[in-house]
Amino acid sequence: MSSKGQVTIPKLVRDALGIMRGDALEFEVRGNEFIGRKKLSRVDWSQYVGILADGRSTDEIMREVRPVRAWAE
User: Domain for residue 6, yes or no?
Assistant: First the structure.
């Protein structure tokens, strides 16, 4: 560890995790262990809210996309 508290992640580990310069990492302490991992990006779903808002109910949409089944009685 450097005097600034910085650590170097070995290339083998960076390659295994797909860590690139600028990637966000997250850290966790478990007892006396230090866990580091690549932080998964989270999708901002707010940009998609209302994309299918065309006035149809969920049931109407599901009837449209599901195949019609003929049931033998």
Answer: no
pLDDT, tens digit, 9 for 90 and up, residues 27-52? 999 999 999 888 887 777 676 676 66
Does residue 70 sit within a domain? no
What's phi and psi for 39, nearest 5 deg?
-75, 130
Model confidence band, residue 63 (pLDDT cutoffs 50, 70, 90): confident
Token couple for 46? 């707010």
What φ, ψ does residue 47 adopt, rounded to 5°?
Answer: -70, -15
* φ, ψ at 18 (rounded to 5°): 70, 30
